[in-house]
Each structure stands twice: as structure tokens, then as C-alpha cells.
Write a structure and sequence with these properties.
With 479 residues, the chain is α/β, with parallel strands linked by helices. 55% of the residues lie in helices and 8% in strands. The chain contains 20 helices and ten strands. α9 packs antiparallel against α10, α15 packs across α18 and α15 crosses α19.
Length: 479
């Protein structure tokens, strides 16, 4: 087989197939390969008119079809399947060639693979790709890691197939070495979990407290999407809520089982945040909310527990309440992004990645699931102050939360009095209040730890570590 393809894609399920089509539509000759050859044949037969494809039936044919340096994109399931594909293709490659993993791999696996392949002279590029199957075809947000050398060769191609932000900038940047790209994609998904949970809580408040129907709430979300909450998730929420089930004539949302599933990236975000010592309480509550929704037996057994008696709002009160929910949703959303960017910054420091937070927010402005208008302002905040310790330290965001906080608190009071669960809104406000508190009860916690475990404590009035002899005269000693 002649060498003619600028890039190759192996693994032709929906994401891989659409990514291959995206490259072909943008003028590249694409080698395509799948473990099941019939899937390769089907892609070329159905979409061959979209561009130039080279169908390969074997690994050897696939590698032979690629120009040097070879760029081989893997689009298979994370974990062992990815390792198996790497083991199949790596021996066929030569120094300077690159393997690009476009799946949702755990960044620690990416770091291991990058190290192992680097020793063989190969580049391994762990690449986060967000946007689902539509994004893969029409333009995703792309988060590649790996070496600067690999990005010099691969980057221009990714820039051509990625989404473009409103200002025309491609939604791709070289995130950093080894696992940086997959780490940022992981946190992106964690923020996505939080975003979806907050939107769900806003929906439930508007329905259970304000008394709006799903169709009415859809119109409220459409209105919100014309303002500061303008985002892909708000847009599709309105579509889902306005949809009517054809079989029953009922609102679609009422015929769907209320048990949310998850694939693991949100859980990884929380697990790694714990390892890094970074509080991502909003993301954690979103993960736990999905977990709780799936415990059908536990929920059924608890359904008879006592709760408050709901009090209906009249239409004028409902409209005021809806405005307050918008404020609470926006403020909580800022907190979720604050926590996510804090985790990225901590990971960057821990692993020596030197991630540009402004660049990350810039590539999330288009293509990805959490794309939103206010990411432009997040980018501007980090560009103006690269060392910004928190989004809440930015004057504009701080001013907006200050304006929203009364409504935010009132919404949570109403939720509590009406018995509507709002773990995301509540966690976001608790995080905000903890940050601005002059003193936290952690001082008491340290006293307790010293009492039962002699773990020591530090004082506000002098340096050093101290321990109190609690069982005797309670004198203090240097630790």
C-alpha cells in the first residue's frame, strides 16, 4: 500500500468515524482501520464522497499508508483496550512517529504510556476531545498534551478540525506535557457534572416551588439563554423540557426514569481533587447526586419520611422566585468553575505542567459541552492576572456574586422550607461563605485532633508546633 495519508484513525465507532470524516472534510487524506474490517468498509462506502480515505484491513497496511512522521489516532475504549491497541501498533512504528489517544483516558495512564513510548523514540499525545459525536464531526474542543515537538507537527491539523470560538480562534491549545491534556479534559467533565446538577436543581425549584410546567420552564430557560447564562447546556435543557412524548402525550421529562448514569470522569475529578487537597464540593455533590438517584431501593424505602408541607406560590410570587433562581444558578455556576480551575492549577503545579488557565478557558468557548458565553470573561480574567488565585478574586465576578448573594440565600431558604433537595446550590454557597469567613471551625478540629491523637497544632501568636498535655495540668509543650 502506498504512503499517502497525513493522518490515520483506528477505532471506528461513532466518535472515531466522525473524527475521521472531520479530517477528510478538511482536506486531509485519512487512513481508516478497525478491528472489524466491515466497519472500515461501511465508512468508506457511506462517506467516501466527503474526502479522501485509505481503507486498511490490517495493522501493517494501516501503518504503511501513513506519511512520516506517522500520526496515528486511537479511538477505542479507555483502559485495557487502549493498551492493547498501543501494543499492536507501537512495534510497527519508527522513532519520531506519534500515537494520539483521543479517548477519555485516565491521565495517570496517559503519563505512563507517554513515558514508555518516549523510551522507544515515539511520541504519545493524550488528547481530550469534547463535543460528543456532533462535535467530533463538525468541530470539537481539543485538549492535546504531549511534547512540544509533537504539537508542532499535529497542532495545525487539530486547529483545522476543531471548533472555532465566536472570534474565530480555534478551540485547541497545547495544554502541556504527558497527561496534561487528559487531566484538563477530566476536570472539564467534572465541571460538566456540576453544571448539569445545578441546572437540574433550578428546574426542580421552578417546578416544585414556583409551580411551573415543563413547557413553561423551557421558556424560562430560553429567556435565560439570551443573557449571562447563555450556554450549550441551557440551550439543550430548554429543548428537552419542551419535548412531548409521542406515545403518551406527557412531557418527555416525566416519562424518563429519574436515575442518572455516569461514565467515571466526574468521579475521577473528585478522587484526584482529594489527592491534591483541593475542595471541589460542587462537583462532588453532583457526582453523589447521580449516585443517590440510582439507589432506587433506598429511595423507595425512604419515601415515607416526614417533610414539610409545600406552599404554593401565586403567579406574581413565582416570577419573583424565578428571577432569584437565575441569580442562584449563575452564582453557583461561577463557584463550580472556580473549583474546577483551582484543581487544574493544583494539578499543573503538582506535575510540572505549567498550564495556561486563560488558554484553557479560551478553548472551552466552542465545541465542548460546557461552552458558555461567560468563558470569554474567564479568559479575560486569567489573561489580565495570570496568577489569579481564584475566579472569586476577580473584581467583576466578585461584584456579580455580591449582587446575587441575597437571592441565592433566599432560594436556599425556600428550598429548605419546601423540602426540595439542592445539594449543588448549597455546596456552592457553603464554599463561598467558607472562603470569606474570618475564622473557620478548623481551630476546634485541630484541638480535638491534639486531644485524642497528640497531632499537635499551630498558634496564631507564635511560630512552631505545639501539643497540650490534656490528661494532666493541660500545660502546653513544644512538639
Amino acid at each position: 500500500m502506498s504512503t499517502s495519508a497525513q493522518i490515520g484513525v483506528t477505532g471506528l465507532a461513532v466518535m472515531g468515524r466522525n473524527l475521521a470524516r472531520n479530517f477528510a472534510r478538511n482536506g486531509y487524506t485519512v487512513a481508516v482501520h478497525n478491528r472489524t474490517p466491515s466497519r472500515t468498509d461501511a465508512l468508506v462506502e457511506e462517506f467516501g464522497h466527503e474526502g479522501d480515505f485509505v481503507a486498511a484491513r490490517t495493522a501493517e497496511e494501516f501503518v504503511a499508508a501513513l506519511e512520516r512522521p506517522r500520526r496515528l489516532v486511537i479511538m477505542v475504549k479507555a483502559g485495557e483496550p487502549t493498551d492493547a491497541v498501543i501494543q499492536e501498533f507501537a512495534p510497527l512504528l519508527e522513532p519520531g512517529d506519534m500515537i494520539i489517544d483521543g479517548g477519555n483516558a485516565h491521565f495517570a495512564d496517559t503519563r505512563r504510556r507517554e513515558r514508555e513510548l518516549r523510551e522507544r523514540g515515539l511520541h504519545f499525545v493524550g488528547t481530550g476531545i469534547s463535543g460528543g459525536e456532533e462535535g467530533a464531526l463538525h468541530g470539537p474542543s481539543v485538549m492535546p498534551g504531549g511534547s512540544t515537538e509533537s504539537y508542532a507537527s499535529l497542532g495545525p491539523m487539530l486547529e483545522r478540525i476543531s471548533a472555532n470560538a465566536a472570534d474565530g480562534a480555534p478551540c485547541v491549545t497545547h495544554v502541556g506535557p504527558d497527561g496534561a491534556g487528559h487531566f484538563v479534559k477530566m476536570v472539564h467533565n467534572g465541571i460538566e457534572y456540576a453544571d448539569m446538577q445545578l441546572i437540574g436543581e433550578a428546574y426542580q425549584l421552578l417546578r416544585d416551588v414556583a409551580g411551573y410546567s415543563p413547557a413553561e420552564i423551557a421558556e424560562i430557560f430560553r429567556t435565560w439563554n439570551t443573557g449571562r447564562l447563555d450556554s450549550y447546556l441551557i440551550e439543550i435543557t430548554a429543548e428537552v423540557l419542551s419535548h412531548v412524548d409521542a406515545a403518551t402525550g406527557r412531557p418527555f421529562v416525566d416519562v424518563v426514569v429519574d436515575q442518572a448514569e455516569q461514565k467515571g470522569t466526574g468521579r475521577w475529578t473528585v478522587q484526584i481533587a482529594l489527592d491534591l487537597g483541593v475542595p471541589v464540593s460542587g462537583i462532588a455533590e453532583a457526582v453523589f447526586a447521580r449516585s443517590l438517584s440510582g439507589h432506587a431501593g433506598l429511595r423507595e424505602a425512604s419515601r415515607g419520611l416526614a417533610g414539610p408541607k409545600p406552599a404554593a406560590l401565586d403567579r406574581a410570587e413565582a416570577q419573583v422566585f424565578a428571577d432569584r433562581v437565575e441569580q442562584a444558578l449563575y452564582a453557583s455556576k461561577i463557584v463550580s468553575y472556580t473549583q474546577g480551575f483551582h484543581e487544574i492549577a493544583a494539578g499543573s503545579e503538582e506535575y510540572g505542567w505549567d498550564i495556561d488557565l486563560g488558554a484553557v478557558s479560551a478553548i472551552w468557548r466552542g465545541g465542548c459541552i460546557i461552552r458558555a458565553a461567560f468563558l470569554d470573561r474567564i479568559r479575560a480574567a486569567y489573561d489580565a492576572r495570570p496568577g489569579l488565585p481564584s475566579l472569586l478574586s476577580d473584581e467583576t465576578f466578585a461584584r456579580e456574586i455580591a449582587a446575587a448573594q441575597d437571592s441565592w440565600r433566599e432560594v436556599l431558604v425556600s428550598a429548605t422550607l419546601q423540602g426540595v433537595p439542592t445539594p449543588g446550590f448549597s455546596a456552592a454557597l457553603a464554599y463561598y461563605d467558607a472562603l470569606r469567613a474570618e475564622r473557620l471551625p478548623a481551630a476546634l478540629t485541630q484541638g480535638q485532633r491534639d486531644f485524642f491523637g497528640a497531632h499537635t497544632y499551630r498558634r496564631v501568636d507564635r511560630e512552631g508546633a505545639f501539643h497540650t498535655l490534656w490528661g494532666g495540668d493541660r500545660s502546653e509543650v513544644d512538639a
